[in-house]
């Protein structure tokens, strides 16, 4: 972008003036729409997402849409010059804007002409980077499902440009049914990753192939599931059962969770039923950011039981708080529960503050907005078996994960090897996490199910509902073990059952 000043010395001044004008418009807009919804004062967001695209065949595309508090509000159809209101309050804006046809005419002209002209100019400025191609790498993983079914997940990563097509095929036929596609998402190094899953009968597993088509490939990359070299297959990173870490961050930033850039809305639904075919689960999410802002805490942690939010902590309140009425019952059994876990969260907050910077240095990245995230949980299946996972991400990308069966760490890339080596020098870290997942977490899951049985042991709790709750309060991860376990020797002290250490940091949340 340094090249723009050579062609247009006034560029930055003009853009600053435009942005300052937009700032004032947004200041008024966020309050005006709050009144349309008759909401109380507090933290609210008003967002605009617009853009244009120039396709290989020369055709042009564009969109212009608004959201309030993370939900669709109004969008523009540039072909018909009309506005589509998402709900009744948004009709106020629709009527107002349609009384002034020049607004729609200007937006159409911007999207089809001015935006395209600037896009072409920017491509010329950055052609060394933006017009490059990088080949995708790929793999297929699998995960056991329910009712004798399983999921195959095709993952493509490290590619550029963003446009890519993944398809599942069986005996050469392209399949669409029982597939789930996640948005193509960026990596910190400027490349992208994407995946496509399909639910299958394991008996026919060998008949399925994933085809990856990309501008960097002369021929499609064809992938199939392969038996892992070791006797233990690493667990798929919960991508088919929990919100991806990067999406959790998107929720934090108030982006449009339900609007994909390719105009396809994708909803992942997780059902936790009381019927015999589904497991019960307890999951936690932590997120720490390097640059907090208004409404965006430096650290936040939340916990879910069977998809229902039940606890929350953030660095603004610095207190663990209940988010489910049935959690009031814990006071009777354990009066020190909230105080003890608040101390644990505060220790984790400090660990995250250090970790987000430590890993930034591992990647040799410049200072700015970065995230360090942790997602973990356990589940109790109908047959009595137990499952669990621990995984970390940096800037929305997989970083390191634990295989609790082999007590080993899997580093996603070279910088993560630093953490892998550090943690494997202390075997007690992996041992403590295994104990937590298989014993302490399961015990607390059962206790929480008992506390909340009137609501949790009914049917129909979905991940869409989880996302709805998270939109209002930001997503990340939380609560920790309340019970000291014999054999758990990971630098802990007896603290009323809390997993705190004499060093003031949680031994299951070590520094990286």
UniProtKB/TrEMBL annotation:
Q: How does it sit in the membrane?
A: Single-pass type I membrane protein
Q: Which UniProt keywords apply?
A: Disulfide bond, Glycoprotein, Immunity, Membrane, MHC I, Signal, Transmembrane, Transmembrane helix
Gene3D superfamilies, from UniProt?
Answer: Immunoglobulins, MHC class I-like antigen recognition-like
Superkingdom per UniProt: Eukaryota
Q: Coiled-coil region(s) at which residues?
A: none
Write out the annotated subcellular location: Membrane
Please cite one Gene Ontology biological process associated with this protein.
immune response
Q: Region labeled Disordered — which residues? A: 486-512
The protein's matches in PROSITE patterns, at most eight in alphabetical order, are given as: IG_LIKE (PS50835), IG_MHC (PS00290)
Q: Which InterPro entries match?
A: Ig-like_dom, Ig-like_dom_sf, Ig-like_fold, Ig/MHC_CS, Ig_C1-set, MHC_class-I_related, MHC_I-like_Ag-recog, MHC_I-like_Ag-recog_sf
Domain Ig-like: start-end pairs: 101-224
Entry keyword annotation includes Hydrolase: no
**Comp. bias (Low complexity):** 492-505
GO annotations of cellular component type: external side of plasma membrane; extracellular space; MHC class I protein complex
Q: Name one Pfam family in it.
A: MHC_I
* Family label: Belongs to the MHC class I family.
Can you say what this protein is called? Ig-like domain-containing protein
Question: Which species is this UniProt entry from?
Answer: Phrynocephalus forsythii
